[in-house]
Specification:
Number of helices of chain A: 14
Order of helices and strands of chain A: HHHHHHHHHHHHHH
Number of strands of chain B: 0
Order of helices and strands of chain B: HH
Radius of gyration of chain B: 18 Å
Structural class of chain B: mainly alpha
Oligomer: heterodimer
Largest interface: A-B, 51 and 36 residues
Distance between the termini of chain A: 26 Å
Largest sheet of chain B: none
Number of strands of chain A: 0
Chain lengths: 424, 73
């Protein structure tokens, strides 16, 4: 019994860590455009997003009944499998954050689950056609839908508004952006914190702590909400920079069009029964808004890197999840080894990120009022310095990094982790 | 494999229309306020422009409220 309770504790902590990485990975969705257009100061923006995420976590009691939405067969799923899946998802989230690439946290979780489930029970555990309908098609549709909507909206707003210099204009778009960013944050808190609550509740059910079908205990709701809010407040500045500055240069009109499109797509998709990824909708909306202004450009090299990351999310998180599940299958020492590797891997990624830190001071190279003074070249160069340039090599680098992270004994001392894990 | 094209299509349609309408309304509201600002600078007033602007913003606010309703329920 002792060992089972410990395992449960590890899974709960890991789920909260995933929730935390989910928070700082997805801050960009709500706040990247708001920050880059100067509608809100960086710290204010993440604080507002964090509060709304926290509120969102408490808004709905409808906990995700399935954590994978039918992609894997969850009946009789073992707690170790959940743990291994979470490890895959967390490491992929951290790696894409290091590279400053927005990628879907849910897809990372799905990938981890698929890998771990296949390793645990064979390919029969995975429902192939559901992967197509729930992951692949949305991945293509989300940026298209949000992008087209944002592009037309941006074109329209430029056409109608004859006098963009007026004071009322600047104030208006600022307010509009803040409102739609707030909606995205709220929706994110509701959806994604629910997901973590669902995972923890499922783990509690598999261990017989709570009865199947019961609502999550209050401490689960509170801790999941707090974890996602803390993650959001920490701010994934690297991803914010890519989204707000790297993909295209946004004016307030475009930022407003992009954010409104993202909010609409997220709400419409989750209520019309065809769920689209928040991250992919937001990235698509930003690109669409970029194209919607005369003379606006999308930096396709950055966009391509992002697309490559989307394509790799499922397989990469799956590989890590499978590797982790392979270890946890070996018994208690395997679980301990995975836990150590997770902490060590996070520590390595964290220390790599300290080489070229991106924070609220330099998230927009042209912060505050200097918006038009800064030549675009500087921004582009700065981004190029942070992310490895050629799209082709991202795949290679990614895989090597992943392998290095997982397979080699970590050079960092795992007992003193400066990793995000330690902050939860 | 059953792909719910109808749901995808309606998401596409609703998102496109709602976004364009909302952004359009909001922009009209801003244009109205700008007109009023200009009129005020000239010493006059533009009551119609201002009323129209507030109506547009009101509709946008209603949309936001509906969005929150969708999130909560």
């Amino acid at each position: 019994m002792e060992h089972i309770t410990l395992l449960l504790a590890i899974v709960v902590v890991t789920a909260l860590v995933f929730d935390f990485t989910n928070g700082f990975h997805d801050t960009a969705n709500a706040m990247a455009t708001t920050i880059s257009t100067g509608a809100l100061k960086p710290k204010t923006a993440v604080a507002m997003s964090a509060v709304l995420n926290l509120i969102g976590a408490f808004l709905s009691v409808e906990v995700a009944k399935t954590i994978s939405g039918g992609i894997i067969n969850e009946e009789g799923i073992r707690t170790e499998v959940i743990f291994a899946a979470l490890v895959g998802a967390i490491l992929w989230n951290l790696l894409t954050w290091l590279l400053g690439l927005p990628s879907s946290s849910s897809h990372a979780l799905f990938g981890g689950l698929i890998g771990a489930a296949v390793m645990s029970a064979g390919w029969a555990a995975v429902n192939g056609s559901t992967i197509v309908t729930k992951v692949l098609i949305p991945a293509v549709a989300a940026p298209l839908v949000a992008g087209l909507a944002a592009m037309f909206a941006a074109k329209l707003t430029y056409r109608i508004n004859a006098n963009p210099e007026a004071k009322a204009t600047a104030k208006g778009y600022r307010a509009g952006q803040i409102a739609s960013a707030g909606l995205v944050s709220l929706a994110h808190g509701t959806n994604d914190a629910q997901k973590t609550m669902g995972i923890i509740t499922l783990a509690l059910v598999t261990q017989g702590v709570v009865a199947p079908g019961s609502n999550p205990p209050l401490w689960v709701v509170v801790s999941a909400g707090v974890a996602i809010a803390l993650g959001t407040y920490l701010g994934g500045w690297r991803i914010i920079r890519t989204m707000g500055k790297g993909l295209t240069d946004l004016q307030p009109q475009q930022g407003f069009a992009a954010q409104t499109s993202a909010a609409t797509v997220i709400l419409a998709s989750s209520h019309l029964g065809f769920s689209l990824s928040t991250t992919q909708s937001c990235s698509g909306a930003v690109m669409g808004a970029g194209l919607g202004r005369k003379g606006g450009v999308v930096r396709w090299s950055t966009a391509t890197r992002m697309f490559v990351a989307w394509g790799l999310t499922l397989p990469a998180a799956g590989l890590v999840g499978a590797g982790a599940e392979f270890l946890t299958k070996q018994g208690p020492w395997g679980i301990a080894a995975v836990a150590v590797l997770l902490v060590a891997g996070s520590a390595v990624i964290w220390s790599l990120s300290r080489r070229k830190p991106v924070d609220h001071h330099n998230v927009t190279a042209d912060d505050l009022d200097a918006a038009d003074a800064e030549p675009a070249g500087v921004v582009t160069t700065a981004i190029a310095a942070v992310t490895p340039p050629p799209a082709g090599s991202v795949a290679a680098v990614t895989d090597e990094d992943l392998k290095a992270t997982i397979l080699t004994p970590a050079p960092t001392d795992p007992t003193a982790p400066p990793a995000p894990a330690a902050k939860v | 494999m059953k792909i719910d094209w109808a749901a995808l299509g309606s998401v596409f349609g609703v998102s496109l229309v709602a976004t364009v309408v909302l952004v359009g309304l909001f922009t009209l509201g801003i244009v109205g306020l700008t007109k009023q600002e200009e009129a005020a600078a000239r010493g006059g007033s533009a009551a119609l422009a201002r009323t129209g602007a507030y109506a547009c913003f009101g509709l946008c606010l209603a949309a936001v409220a509906y969005g929150i309703y969708l999130i909560v329920v």
